[in-house]
Amino acid sequence: MIFNYDVVVVGAGHAGCEAAAAAANLGVKTCLITMDMNKIAQMSCNPAIGGIAKGQIVREVDALGGQTGIVTDRCSLQFRMLNLSKGPAVWSPRSQCDRNKFIWTWREILENTPNLQLWQDQVRALIVENQEVRGVKTYYGAEFRAQCVIITAGTFLNGLMHIGKVKIPGGRCAEAASLELTESITKHGIQAGRMKTGTPVRIDKRSVDFSLMEKQDGDHDFHKFSYLPTKRMAVSERNNLPCWICYTNTAVHDVLRSGLADSPLYNGQIQSIGPRYCPSIETKLHTFPDKEEHMLFLEPEGETTNEMYLNGFSSSLPLDIQLNALRQIPAFRNLEIYRPGYAIEYDFFDPTQLTHSLESKVVKNLFFAGQVNGTTGYEEAAGQGVIAGINAAINCHPNLNEGKAFTLQRNEAYIGVLIDDLVTKGVDEPYRMFTSRAEYRILLRQDDADTRLTERSYQLGLATQERYDLMMSKKEKRDALINFIANFSLKPSLINPTLEKLGTTLLRQGCKLEELLGRPQININNIAPHIEPFRKELDRLLADEPRREEIVEAAEIQIKYKGYIYREQQMADKMIRLENIKILGKFDYPNMTQISIEARQKLQAIQPVTLAQASRIPGVSPSDINIMLVLLGR
Q: N or C: which end of the chain has fewer CB within 10 A?
């Protein structure tokens, strides 16, 4: 049987869900095909969203009109803002979620999205004609014809799980692998590779002695993920479910070392490369041989389940080794588990074969998003999914965005950094986002993702009127507050008694309130009660505003970091000049003897669109860029 759609999305993980929702909400007829409708947006590893830089990506997805932030708030068991002791450039939201509620909340959203149909089946082959995708074929014998196809198969492509010497084909625990799709894609000239990731043991909390662990509570403030007026899950309003901290010890390490001979990572059973920044416990022993303990986090999987996740103990060691080692930790002396940790190998596709819209350079209208591009993490997948979904919709309906690809620059979003890194530099290990990867991170804060991105998405047609109006209202009130603070003058005689109480230097002469707020000891909340005109202005602007704290925080960050923001914007503006210099098709790289051989080879392989993108390719030096500028001038 043949079905006809505009866009077909293969795989309902975090990338697939966001891609399907974005395409459908842009008005194109979309079908999301998944092997199991009861595992939509399954959190294969840690049931948490966000973290360092990852939280910023989720806020950007939300600002664009995506769904991950909304789902997270509705399923949050514990929320924390990480890095609050540092500058706001690296503040990162993170939420522990109810795994099962997360699945069903996503499914509810998808099933009620206009223009979107779900289909439970497994895709076995692409339909390609004249190097242009035409649809997919499934194991049920169905054909789904479409103008665009988005591949978001996660770890399922030829997935192989490892527990010691035991090898089990699968894309996830108790779920079948996809065994033919990779070959159907590579036969059209797309290059594939192999990667590895892993997940820890799952623990029965009834067997844990929590009195021997350190309790870690969440935050109880206004922060959340979505800019829309969604609420966190009810459990968070009553009492955050805590996480717990414990440590390995030398006895644990001795047991683990006794099993290394049977570790797939060290006996040659696994050849592919795993994530550098989320190493297995056996890798930690190898990398840090002198370290006598490693921190572990025991985290809830749901509000009502006894199942808990042991963060920091990812492993593919034999089952008995994993269990015996953990029982050497005092809190786990009587430990019972639901299942062991395991490693999984899977296929991915070299992302340098993609454009910045995530469309294949080899097969027209074929898009890739998520772990199939060599990334790791739900958040990185979701960010790619939104962009792939938007651009597939544009390819189907050229009236969208005037037919131009929707892309984000490195100074606009972490999603822009992520995609540019993938398509420009490629990957030799699973890619994970960090704030350090962004050269403009003071511009890419979690607090202002809406003011950066919502208007662009609204003009495209994805962000709703409600979302746009909320952003504009917030921006207007924030700017009005900043303007008042910048122009309000203070006299020493009136404010010095308060400054003395706050432990900061007294004024010798009058100054603007803006200057005073630049001090680390002073913030809007602790100074406003002592300045009557300021307190009245706050009440006038924000008296009935449910986002009062959010707006105050946004204004204060702009004030305190004004100089840094300005300087970084100047740097970004300089790079934008190079972004505007188009070079695609203008150079015969193999015959450019003026630049290095390595640069010629890299430029020929990647075919950068702009001079700025060329400058970020490993192996292309600043002198190579200067030579290209001179040649362009000629």
A: C
* pLDDT tens-digit readout, 327-378: 999 999 999 999 999 999 999 999 999 999 999 999 999 999 999 999 999 9
Pairing of strands 48-50, 76-82: unpaired
Residue 267: its pLDDT value, please? 83
How many of the other CB atoms lie within 10 Å of CB of 428? 11
Which helix (H) or strand (E) segment holds residue 634: the answer is none
- Cα 289 to Cα 275: distance, rounded to the nearest angstrom: 19
CA distance 205 to 252: 20
Nearest to residue 454, comparing CAs of 475, 440, 433?
Answer: 475
**Residue 521 in tokens:** 């000891």
pLDDT tens, position by position, 504-536 = 999 999 999 999 999 999 999 999 999 999 999
**What letter does residue 269 receive in the DSSP assignment?**
S
Residue 238 has pLDDT above 50, yes or no: no
Cβ neighbours, 10 Å, residue 182: 22
> pLDDT at position 237, please?
45
Residue 447 is given by DSSP the state G
Confidence tier at 236 by pLDDT (50, 70, 90)? very low
Separation of alpha carbons 365 and 228, rounded Å: 32
Question: Angle at which helices 548-560 and 465-487 pack, to 10 degrees?
Answer: 50
Q: Quickly tell me which residue has 């979302």 as its tokens.
A: 467
Classified as helix, coil or strand, 94 is strand
What are the CA-CA distances from residue 304 to residues 30, 97, 108, 215 (Å)? 35, 12, 20, 19
Please give the single-letter amino acid code of residue 68: T
* Alpha-carbon torsion angle 398, 353, 443, 231, nearest 10: 70
Axis crossing angle, helix 68-75 with helix 378-396, rounded to the nearest 10 = 140
Q: Check the CA dihedral 399-403-408-411 and report its sign.
A: negative
Confidence of residue 578 (pLDDT cuts 50, 70, 90): confident
Burial of 384: CB neighbours in 10 Å, binned 0-12, 13-18, 19+:
buried
* Bridge partners, residue 229, by sequence: none
Q: Quick check: 568 pLDDT over 90?
A: yes
Q: Which amino acid is at 90?
A: V
- Token pair in block for residue 100: 């099962």
Cβ–Cβ under 8 Å, residues 162 and 342: yes
Task: Tell me what the pLDDT averaged over the chain comes to.
Answer: 95
- Smallest CA-to-CA distance from 415 within 2, 5, 57 is with 57
